[in-house]
Amino acid sequence: MSLSQHKFAVPLSIAKIIDQVDEPVQAIFGEQALMIDSVASLGDEKKGALVFCKAKGLKAKNLINSSLATAILISPDINPGSMKEKCYLQVADPARWFVRALTTLFPNPSHQKENIHPSAVIEHGAIIGEGCLIGAGTFIGANVTLGAGCKIGPNCSLGVSGLAVAYEENGTPLAFPHLGNVILGERVQVGANCVIVRGILEDTRIDDNCQLGNMVNIGHNCIVEKNCWISTKALLCGSVTLNEGVMVGANATLNNHITIGANANIGLGSVVTKSLANGQSVFGVPAKSLPTMRSLK
After folding, report:
1. What is the structure's pLDDT at 295?
2. Is this structure's pTM higher than 0.85?
3. Which CATH superfamily is domain 111-289 in?
């Protein structure tokens, strides 16, 4: 996407942007009257752009010194050095401040009200909370409840039955009826082409502020507690519990009936066959402890 697609309708001074964004600035180095006309990624910017730097130490200093941007969001521990034709804003979390700036400077009217794509199928009995967005081609079953502010991407299926069988005496499979619900808390984000299976007898539940990437599959009876992060193509088999703050890397698979402790990290492509303790980090097939693994955020 070209830089021109990220330009403001009207250039704004740094002081004006600070005034509009609902996030504190701890210190300012440079002239707040400098004009900003766009936002960009660090390293892909031009003069007049607002960017952010998540790096620390010497790496951060090298990046900001070589940046062409006019306004740069930096962490409190970075000494910005030269300030010629630049303004550095020290903030607690540069990425968070930048996100708040984007939502302020590029508002999307559809985010302010319920917005269900005409091609989505919402069965009678489904409960859709205030301010939810539901993408094209998505199916929401009658057994589904969405809390306020949920964002469901295109071509998802929520509330479908999963694979669970008993067997006739002659070995013919007998499908196990799914009688449970799917319950999403508030501000749950579900990427494109995800499947969330209803519970068999219990409910499948995803709590507040969880984020699912594209093509994630959540099996029946799973419990995903608050603030979990599940990346693209991850698979949770039936009756998996993720305690609060768990992070699951892309293409990871979690076996049936296991519990993942709070704030655990599961590396990309891992196959987790056993329960994990709080804060444990694992990687591999089968997944094993990897204490040096960095956070997936």
Report:
1. 64
2. no
3. Hexapeptide repeat proteins (2.160.10.10)
